[in-house]
Amino acid sequence: xxxxxxxxxxxxxxxxxxxxxxxxxxxxxxxxxxxxxxxxxxxxxxxxxxxxxxxxxxxxxxxxxxxxxxxxxxxxxxxxxxxxxxxxxxxxxxxxxxxxxxxxxxxxxxxxxxxxxxxxxxxxxxxxxxxxxxxxxxxxxxxxxxxxxxxxxxxxxxxxxxxxxxxxxxxxxxxxxxxxxxxxxxxxxxxxxxxxxxxxxxxxxxxxxxxxxxxxxxxxxxxxxxxxxxxxxxxxxxxxxxxxxxxxxxxxxxxxxxxxxxxxxxxxxxxxxxxxxxxx
Length: 280
What we know:
Blueprint: H1 7-21, H2 28-42, H3 54-59, H4 63-75, H5 82-90, H6 95-99, H7 106-116, H8 123-131, H9 137-149, H10 151-163, H11 168-175, H12 183-194, H13 200-210, H14 216-223, H15 230-242, H16 257-273
């Protein structure tokens, strides 16, 4: 493996010199627009320490070397540059990148998950992460986001995990994004909604995301209950309308604590934006 080079650190040094030379030449907003362009130019700049440009340095590596280099960067506390990540991303999700999903370091896993994305190659590794009892929760959430982007590919894994009681709420979220309108998936989502307690608003959103109008009777029956609070009412109404339904009954939430809190926050925002004038 080639030596680790902190290309971002080298860029920061060059940028500091450039900003000092051009002090006062650009406004803050102009600098914000210019810096990304300078970074891209840096990618094609020959770096004597590397014996190549940053882009060339990684382009010459094999898939295995790239994955090994990424892992080494994280383990040794050297920030991996965007040039390394983009080169890995451009290789079309090589197996060596997918193998990093078996690592335990949350930082490395987060980077690997973002690079693998919704590629079907990563699905088994993603569910292996979710099966770990000690899995980092932020990593699990990142995995769930990627699985939602390829929910149809993840469906059978998600159904298996749900049946076995493994991370059921995340499985419901993933299943709600499937597009095949599978009857078993619909039955699971509907049953989970009917049996929900505090999770009702979220599970109503799953039915809205799934998009099957057969859920309307249950949603309409639930929204009409007297014990529905304002937050639940809002999510239920959204789900009903998302599925092509309508709920027009006027409800009084003037004593609902959630309604009062939201109204108070909105009133405060108005006061900040339009403060009352006082006599001098």
